Amino acid sequence: MSSTLDVKLRRLRLAFMAASFEAQNAESIKHKHGYLEFLGSLVDAELESRDNKGLMKRVKAAHFPLEKTLEEFNFDFQPKLDVKLIKSLASCDFIERRENVILVGQPGTGKTHLSIALGIKACEKGFDVRFTTVQDLAARLRGAHADHSVEDVIGNFLEPDLVILDELGFTPLDRLLADAFYRIIASRYEKKSLIVTSNKSFESWAEVFPDPVIASAVLDRLVHHAHLVPIVGESFRMKDVRARQKGEATAKK
């Protein structure tokens, strides 16, 4: 009987239910559950399994360089950071409202960590997310320019519910990347959400783009309906370096 039920459940694409119904049945008998409780437990377990698989699929598709969570972020090290705003953004309501988030701060202050953490929260909420550094996007566009697939590369960043563009400002943009960057921003404007991290203040963005007109057009669309998150503080990486050096000095004494 159990083997026949297993086959039928798998035909219905209820794989987790097929794998767990015997154990769940034994548990229900042990606790004297009714038929509806038993069935409810099976369905809940199947749904939870599918949710977990969906989350893993979305996280993989996002192409995060690392998995960083909000719970891992050391807010005590950045006391000037607006924790209330970050936790509000973690609800992902800004994606529902098609708003943007701009994280601005010096290298090492946690911009990338926060952007990934918010991206993972979005995946948990069922949103499709794509992550890229501006430098990786530039490399992909240059390669695509050679085989005439620039439109395909740009298209990858138009449909997701949330696109994260990391490290704007580390290197100046050439004309090809600046045009592509503008098209992504303009196409998503008031339709889909963006998270952009930058080590430069808005006043310095003209230095990044080859044309101040493009810089102004990008900034205008980004900041409209945007949450600005300035991060003013020390570098986490420099803190780790100092701690390591201190430990080494202590060990030598």
At a glance:
With 253 residues, the chain is α/β, with parallel strands linked by helices. It has eleven helices and five strands, in the order αααααβαβααβαβαβα.
Task: Report on the architecture of this protein.
The chain is of the alpha/beta class. It is built from 11 helices and 5 strands, in the order αααααβαβααβαβαβα. It has 2 domains: 2-60, no CATH class; 70-238, P-loop containing nucleotide triphosphate hydrolases (Rossmann fold), CATH 3.40.50.300. Helix 1 crosses helix 2, helix 2 (15-30) packs antiparallel against helix 3 (35-62) and helix 3 (35-62) packs antiparallel against helix 6 (111-124). The mean pLDDT is 86.
CATH class of the largest domain: Alpha Beta
The total number of structural domains is: 2
* Oligomerization category of the chains in this entry: single chain
Poorly predicted regions are none
Q: Quote the beta fraction.
A: 5-15%
**What gap, in angstroms, lies between the N and C termini?**
73 Å
Might you state the CATH topology name of the largest domain? Answer: Rossmann fold
What composes the largest sheet?
5 strands, parallel
Structural class: alpha/beta
Total number of strands? 5
The percent of residues in helical segments reads 55-70%
CATH architecture of the largest domain: 3-Layer(aba) Sandwich
SSE series: HHHHHEHEHHEHEHEH
The CATH homologous superfamily of the largest domain is named P-loop containing nucleotide triphosphate hydrolases
Strands in their spatial order, largest beta sheet: 2-3-4-1-5
Gross geometry: elongated
Mean pLDDT across all residues, rounded? 86
Number of helices: 11
